[in-house]
Design goal:
The complex is a heterodimer of chains A (about 150) and B (about 260).
Chain A lengths: L1 H27 L9 E8 L10 E4 L2 E11 L6 E8 L9 E6 L6 E6 L12 E2 L1 E3 L4 H10 L4
Parallel strand pairs in A: 1-7, 2-6, 5-8
Antiparallel strand pairs in A: 1-4, 2-3, 3-4, 5-6
Chain B lengths: L1 H34 L4 H11 L4 H23 L8 H39 L2 H7 L4 H39 L4 H11 L2 H27 L4 H31 L1
Helix pairs in contact in B: 1-6, 2-6, 3-4, 3-6, 4-6, 4-7, 4-8, 4-9, 6-8, 8-9
Classes of the chains: A alpha/beta (about 150), B mainly alpha (about 260).
Amino acid sequence: MKNVNLETIVGVFVLIGILCLGYLSVKLGKMELLGGDYYEVYAEFDNVSGLKKGASVEIAGVEIGRVDRIMLNSGKEKAKVYLRVNSSLKLQDDVIASVRTRGIIGDKFIRLKPGGSDVFINPGGKIRESESSIDLEELVSKYIHGNVE
Amino acid sequence: MTLLIRKLGALALFILGEMGRMLDFLLYGIYCIVRFPGRPVHILKQIHFIGARSSFVILLTASFTGMVLGLQGYYTLSKFGSEGLLGSAVALSLIRELGPVLSALMVTGRAGSAITAEIGIMRITEQIDALDTMALNPFKYLISPKLLAALVALPLLCAIFDVVGIYGGYVVGVKLLGVNPGAYFHEMEKSVEWKDVYSGIMKSLSFGVIIAWVCCYKGYYCGHGAEGVSRATTSAVVMSSVVILIWDYFLTSVLL
């Protein structure tokens, strides 16, 4: 009887501990147990300065995916950004991806602007239209040095 | 002068010998875990002692740590008008640093001292020698279940600490000070990465090894008589707390 009691107490302790671990790693750590409900597309940008892996991808302010990884493209001149997008969502092939900043000093994120085309991007496909991040420093220095176009 | 140098040399030799013996002890303990897994009941009892019976004190310290983090974080962040970041401040400091370290320190104080005293008393009443005489490996009965139990219990305690602390911060930040609850959890989910959770778990695993190792070692090689046990217990608690904090620094610098 005493043994059963001991086992129950330990069992409850371990269960609570594992629940807490699960909460931390799945909810907060965003560990994906099932990778099935996402697909990947990529886009090329001239400049993604400040954009980080894991940044959100949004349409009209609603989060629909995350930045998976960032690297240089094969020509070593542009940034190639892989996006993981919720698979319930189809992207038109004329969707525009732009790097935006939340507020003035906020995080960088990718904003997608849906297009009007009937053709959808396949998983692994490329978003052709892209806008780079706005370089605040460059803008300010242009203003200061007086050659605003 | 020569006496001084000789003393220094003796001290260095003593420290080196002690370190070597401790390493030997740990390696043999790990070998015993693999070689003689022992009866599950022994391990279960140790998990019950180290883990389950520490949960109350962990609950208490965790909720107050989270609450004071909420208070301090609010005070600091409100100077910049960014109270919304309170959730991420509380969660990151708990998950990365305070959860593993504080839970390890509490377990050291509660269970580590008891482990040292238990093994120390078995040593001075010659029960360990009796086991040896009967050709029963004392490591198999005393040390490896404790090592294994600490390895299982510490990450779980740390996870409980983190979650309870986060909700403690929530109570103070949102209910008392009026931070937006959506902002609290959203900022938290946005800023906490899998890497942070992982490094916290790694830390608490290694702290589990440190606690069981140092406390068992100090008890196993304790001095003579009641005084020897008391000295071993004190030095076990002091040493494992210090080692935890030092190891935490190095582990953080590696994992960061």
